[in-house]
Design goal:
The chain is 32% helix and 20% strand. It is of the alpha/beta class. β12 and β13 form a beta hairpin. Bound molecules: guanosine-5'-diphosphate, magnesium ion and zinc ion.
């Protein structure tokens, strides 16, 4: 990243005022909103700048995502614009929604309405763990169930070691949630209708996210397109776009599934078979000795079945995929890159700070959609 200047780049960024570090919280086309400390004199603690990438980064199509930690210069607090000069290395990246440097995934479920399903919660927990991220559980709509029922739900998952908080967005009862959000980059996951948008609104009413809307991939028309973005709430950053909308498991070795069920883990090394799937193997230590709630073991067997099927399919199609890749040779994507590069070289110098500020304002007020921005901002 830190290479010397080049024709087309602006001069030494240090000559252009202070360089500050920030986090990309939103991206529309080639405009990146970066949250960074505000000017001390202004008294504003945090500030969002609409940024472009420096010329060299545009040219090289340096991939910058929501969640990336970046350095910005050319700060213009009046027009709220700046220039991204450097991207820090990512700790991790979530593919859908594309967000970098995620600290935790909060699986949000409802205590009722929709009816609590341990299998659905277990599925989300397994998916999150497969992506290598820490999972925590938010049980919302606590106002709809008795204290006893809530205690049982919370207790059973806390006993497995997951952090669990109970909330009611309706009653603005979100103190527990605020505590686990502080200082973290979090992504909400979970079925629709459980109150994810309502919780974000309860944390910060200024967000005024739409509630009670079933998100549908078919419903993304020109003016309803949503983008992955991070909201600053409760001293942390939270993605408003739910992760894990595809509930199918990736190709994952079936014998590894047990490691994603914390109550099985201590017993797995004691199974006589090294690739024991804790199903019908004789003398299986997990089946015979681990204390597993029946509903959890049901989830396990169900997921195991799915993984076996996916794994078999993957094995039988590997050879086909390989030959198909060779034939296409990546020609289409190569052509696309060349085209973008040429357009950008031509357009990049025309993008002034003034223009960028206009774009930012229009985009923020919803006047532009991504296609229009694609035409304008490069
Ligand atoms: N009773 C009750 N209803 C809630 C609560 N949180 C959300 N709701 C309702 O549940 C529905 C779905 O909420 P929404 O935030 O859109 O869920 P999302 O699909 O997960 O974003 C809406 O009608 C909300 O008013 C809560 O804590 N208690
Ligand atoms: Mg929602
Ligand atoms: Zn076993």
């Amino acid at each position: 990243m830190a290479r010397g200047p080049e024709a087309g780049d602006r001069p030494d960024p240090n000559a252009l005022g202070p360089v500050v570090e920030g986090v990309v919280v939103r991206r529309i086309s080639n405009v990146f909103w970066v949250r960074a400390p505000g000017a001390a004199a202004s008294g504003i603690a945090e500030f969002e700048y609409a940024c472009s990438r420096r010329a060299r980064m545009r040219k090289e199509q340096v991939d910058i995502r929501v969640g990336d930690r970046v350095r910005i210069s050319n700060l213009d607090p009046v027009n709220s614009t700046a220039l991204i000069t450097e991207v820090q290395e990512r700790v991790n990246t979530l593919p859908r929604p594309p967000i970098a440097n995620v600290d935790q995934v909060l699986v949000v479920v409802a205590a009722s309405q929709p009816e609590f399903s341990s299998q659905l919660l277990d599925r989300f927990l397994v998916l999150v763990q497969m992506s290598g991220l820490p999972a925590a559980i938010v049980i919302n709509k606590r106002d709809l169930v008795s204290t006893d029922r809530l205690a049982a739900l919370v207790g059973s998952y806390r006993a497995l070691g997951y952090p669990v908080v109970a909330t009611s967005a309706r009653l603005s009862d979100v103190a527990g949630l605020e505590r686990i959000l502080a200082g973290q980059v979090s992504v909400f996951a979970g079925p629709s209708g459980v109150g994810k948008s309502s919780l974000l609104n309860a944390l910060d009413p200024r967000l005024s996210l739409k509630e009670g809307e079933v998100s549908s991939r078919l419903g993304t028309g020109r003016h309803t397109t949503t983008f992955a973005s991070l909201h600053a709430v409760a001293g942390g950053l939270v993605a408003d776009t739910p992760g894990y909308s595809h509930l199918e498991f990736p190709d994952w070795p079936p014998e590894e599934l047990g490691w994603l069920f914390p109550e099985m883990v201590p017993w797995i090394p004691r199974c006589p078979l090294s690739k024991c799937q804790h199903d019908s193997e004789p003398d299986c230590a997990v089946k015979n000795r681990a204390e597993i709630a029946p509903a959890r073991f049901e989830s396990y067997l169900r997921f195991l079945e799915e993984l076996r099927r996916t794994h078999d399919r993957a094995l039988s199609s590997t050879s086909k995929v390989e030959s198909a890749t060779k034939m296409s040779g990546g020609g289409e994507s190569a052509r696309r890159l060349v085209r973008i590069d040429a357009e950008q070289r031509e357009d990049s110098r025309r993008l002034t700070h003034q223009r960028l500020a206009e774009l930012a304002t229009q985009a923020a007020s919803g006047e532009l959609d991504e296609e229009e921005l694609d035409d304008l901002a490069t």
